[in-house]
């Protein structure tokens, strides 16, 4: 019989990391299946996500739930007996969803530029990347987590990027730490959680993966 | 005293239309303020949305709620005594959120290309646009609304684009109707609702606005 919960992922994907962390935080039993998204997507992936053909795919009782932000909310709603990731107050929920959207619109796109561009474009990307992190750091403020005293929705959404920081810095040739000490401390704090430590790959392995990507796309 | 609910919008924006429809459907009293987003954004807009500086902005008791999809969810949660836009079942909620995400990622971007590109790029955009609509039409199936028997979240998210259909067709020089009869019928059905009729501008006015945009951006 098929496992009740299956997660199709790809280890360097910060989107897949989110869903794994959410499952781990809720103590859900699941089967993880690594996808070869670059060379050979599985028939199950193509069947479950025929529109985008992307990971992560969360399969629950044979039915797909797509898009990492939606998956985290789904997990939060279905396994609702534990602590919630999202606040119950509508305004605070809206704020958490706003920051998640901000991360996906800004940080992912700009992060990619730090290893995929050069010259003036790279310089602008590096500056923008730091500005985005500073904006996030300002939102974090003096709280231990974006969720306040507890690790919550925005923490889950953002933390995967932390494993990419060394890659961004190495290929972009810039340094995050001087202006983002609090955010780095937040990343270290999150890494102490079992869920995060399990889902995030070794940063050096991410550096190696980005090197592969640069070769694949002919970026020098 | 300031009105409790203020909506900052810009009439041709399908994103702003969504939030207005959501407020109207819930019977919320609000003050609408038209923004000149191209030439002169108001100090209130810049204060309430300093990060993106975009409309729509929903201001509730002096506090901003940003991003149209989040605003619809917020309105659904705060004025929850009426019919819900989103289904209560987590799986159906996840599906509705998926289609909303699909519309924003695919339809908006591709729609823009129908009036902002030419040659082969335009031809590809026209084909893709029809494919996206056919995918949505397939999801609609034989239901009167995406929400089933009742007008719901995905209906609110998609309907604003309907007012842009004549502009897309005119400037892209292609025809939506032959392959999307059911979707057109859905659009006409939605237009019979007071909320939609109030929020959607006249399509010919949208055509004029796109002409202005083309001049502004030097697109011939």
Automatic annotation (TrEMBL), chains A, B:
Keyword Glycoprotein assigned to the entry: answer is: no
| CDD domains assigned to the protein according to its UniProt record, in alphabetical order | GST_C_Tau, GST_N_Tau
UniProt entry keywords in alphabetical sequence: Cytoplasm, Detoxification, Transferase
Please report the name of this protein according to its UniProt entry.
Answer: glutathione transferase
Biological process (GO) annotations held by this record are:
glutathione metabolic process; toxin catabolic process
* Designated gene of the protein: GSTU21
Pfam short name (any one): GST_N
Q: What range(s) does the GST N-terminal domain occupy?
A: 3-83
Q: Which GO terms describe its molecular function?
A: glutathione transferase activity
Which protein family is named in the record?
Belongs to the GST superfamily. Tau family.
Catalysed conversion reaction: RX + glutathione = an S-substituted glutathione + a halide anion + H(+)
Domain GST C-terminal, first and last residues per copy: 89-209
Compartments, as annotated in UniProt: Cytoplasm, Cytosol
Q: Has the keyword Hydrolase been applied to this entry?
A: no
């Amino acid at each position: 019989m098929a496992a009740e919960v299956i997660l199709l992922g790809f280890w360097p994907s910060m989107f897949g990391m989110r869903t794994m962390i959410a499952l781990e935080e809720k103590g859900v039993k699941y089967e993880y299946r690594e996808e070869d998204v670059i060379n050979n997507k599985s028939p199950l992936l193509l069947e479950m996500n025929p529109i985008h053909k992307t990971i992560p795919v969360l399969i629950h009782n044979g039915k797909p739930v797509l898009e990492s932000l939606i998956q985290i909310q789904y997990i939060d709603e279905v396994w609702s007996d534990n602590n919630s990731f999202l606040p119950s107050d509508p305004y605070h929920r809206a704020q958490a969803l706003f920051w998640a959207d901000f991360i996906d619109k800004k940080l992912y796109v700009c992060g990619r530029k730090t290893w995929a561009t050069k010259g003036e474009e790279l310089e602008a990307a590096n500056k923008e990347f730091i500005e985005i992190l500073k904006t996030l750091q300002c939102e974090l403020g003096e709280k231990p987590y974006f969720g306040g005293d507890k690790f919550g929705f925005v923490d889950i959404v953002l933390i995967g990027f932390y494993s990419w920081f060394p890659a961004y810095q190495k290929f972009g040739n810039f340094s995050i730490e001087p202006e983002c000490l609090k955010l780095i401390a937040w990343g270290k704090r999150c890494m102490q959680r079992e869920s995060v430590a399990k889902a995030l790959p070794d940063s050096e392995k991410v550096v190696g993966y980005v090197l592969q990507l640069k070769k694949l796309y002919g970026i020098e």
